[in-house]
Amino acid sequence: MNYITINASVATPSTEEMAYAQTNNRLDTLNNKLDTSVQQLQTNINSQINSVNTSLQNTETSLTNLIDNQTNAVAVRIDNIIANNADTDGNTELIDIRSSYDGRIYSSAGTAVRNQLYNTNTLLNKADSEIFTTTLQTLELEYSLGYQHVDGTFFESQLYSHTDISVSAGEVYYITGWNFYNVLLYAILDTDGNVLQQEQESGSANADAYTDFQVVIPPNAAVLRVNRKETPQQSNFIPTVKKEVKTSKITSGLNTVNARMQAVETANAQNAATLENALYSRTSALVDMSALHTGMMIKTWVTSANVNTPSTYLGGNASRIYTDVYTVHQGDIIKSAFQFSDQKNFTYMLFDTNGDFVSTATGTSLTVANDGYIIFDFPNSLLIPEGIVIVDNADDFPYPVPYKKSNFQTSIAFETELPLQNIDKTGGYTAIFHDIGIIGDSLACGCMEGVDTSTNEYKYTDNLPYSWAACIERATGCICHQFCRGGQYLHDNNWYSEWKQAVAQNPCTAYIICIGFNDYNWLNQSENNLGSLSDINENFETNPNTFYGQYGKMLSYIKSVQPKAKIFLVNMEWNSTDNSSINTAISQICTNTDNCYLIDLKTYAHEPYWNVPNIFKTGLYHKNTLGYQKTAWDIMSYIDYVIRHNMNDFIDVQFIGTNLRLPTQAEIS
């Protein structure tokens, strides 16, 4: 086949292309607005937190100082009392103690001391209410039945159960108990089990009311034992216990602010989801993809179909996967939808409104002719699309716009960043390679499918100026040497013999290798010619004619021309079902080759490729100028990602192909 190099001008963007661009602009605008709102809210909340903290701290300091001053004054006065028995006239200190800090003269020394201590306690309570929030926490009590008593003085003949609560001195508890005569309500014990305090309810046996007890835990206490009485004659005595909990108002204020921030974040997430749904509302789900059945027997109500013709479709098949039965209407346009994987075919069985079989076919789209019912099925789990949806019109593409910003993020944490999560259309660090060798087949050299209007002939034409290599060259300013052509392959020594001399004459700093499509076809027609890593020999001229052997031969030869070159291996994004062995081989070869890095477009590329006409392609296999530009952005951004995450590997790129090396620290000194 003769391949022709043509120069063509860029076509005016189509309506669909402009829609994609406008959608991306809307996303960026919404993204910026959301970020600005969140940042402003964060600033306001931080300001409010600081203000609350300052106010509370000032109040606490002021009250503490006032309490300390009054307490110290009283203590000094009490310490300096000199009482001489029977000599009240000469005892000036007893007269002085009647004078308060504010100049008031009390009638007696005792009254002065008592009143001022009362004022001090009042201030302490005020400080407590200003600084702390007091709440009651209900405790869960667990009882075990048995004969229980605290110190042997009560209830040895009664049936009791109890629960123990670990306590500390100064804690406050409230116990609510039922009025029974001589009921031991609680006891406080030290670490040795000695009773420090206990409470016996002395109410009437016929009383019908609850009583609250406030329990302040004394020093050296370790356990609060709460009893429950079981009697055959009377209702059970079942107490409840609540613990008094003091929470700093500063902490309470921060919790309130945090709750507000959480509410704002939740609202932002909901707004983002609403916006995303609005932007991608051109399709509606038809099939519940979780409702799949392996070897399902089709529902019996459709077996009234013409049994002779569709019998092979109605019986179910253990090797296939089926959906449920769905209602469809005349004019419905149904398409296979995807996001990050290749679009896949579906096989459908169509029935009329009576349940009679109408037709079956395989494809990625369907326009329903009449009202009825439909069932979809797939050969295996690898061929299940991410969705089967109804679209508004046949030209709609039921998958997200390329480079959609999930979660409306403006920045990505370096530690969690994924390849192609950040698309850099300038090429980023790819520009450090001043000359790059491109090795590949028609998919690398810009081949496009078209029809000759003069002869009506369908042609495949290599279009180098529109290849992704040319796009990289224009974006980065690097020189890209293209050691590739349409129909290129590795087996039978093909690439090696054709490009050996050209590669030797143009050694490059880096190489991007994207080859294997035609070898994939060759492997399908041969027996076990994939090979293994053992096919890559030190003397590469002796490598066998397997995919491993010929790929290794190509790499070995490139490294013999430019030993320190950085090499990027691109796996195949275009087929999701049968090329896994080739992608595995490329990954293994990459791992076992120095200065070699994998560009995994199969996993991270945003737009799948294989056998699907879409806006990025000229036919089933080859991209158009939009598609090759997009591939260039993907490859450049991936290389930039690799360099940013492996900086030390690329600090000597400037010396590739020279006798120079980086100086040691000692040499620098």
Keywords summarizing the entry:
669 residues, alpha+beta, 26 strands
How would you describe what is shown here?
By secondary structure, this protein is of the alpha+beta class. It has helices at residues 15-79, 92-96, 109-131, 249-279, 311-314, 468-476, 494-505, 517-525, 547-561, 580-591, 601-604, 625-644, 665-668; strands at 132-138, 144-146, 159-166, 172-178, 181-189, 195-202, 210-216, 223-230, 240-248, 283-285, 292-294, 321-323, 326-328, 333-337, 346-352, 357-363, 365-367, 372-378, 387-391, 435-440, 448-452, 457-461, 479-484, 510-514, 566-570, 596-599. Helix 1 (15-79) runs antiparallel to helix 4 and helix 6 packs across helix 12.
Précis, in short:
The protein is α+β, with helices and mostly antiparallel strands and 669 residues long. Helices cover 32% and strands 22% of the residues. The strands form six sheets. Strands 11, 12, 13, 15, 16 and 18 form a six-stranded antiparallel beta sheet that branches.
Q: Spans with pLDDT under 50 lasting ≥5 residues?
A: 1-11, 150-158, 203-208, 296-316, 400-410
Structural class: alpha+beta
Rg of Cα set:
42 Å
The portion of residues forming beta strands comes to 15-25%
Please count the beta strands (DSSP E, at least 2 residues each): 26
Mean pLDDT: 75
Shape: elongated
Give the helix proportion (percent range): 25-40%
Number of helices: 13
| Ends apart, CA distance between termini | 62 Å
The biggest beta sheet reads: 6 strands, antiparallel
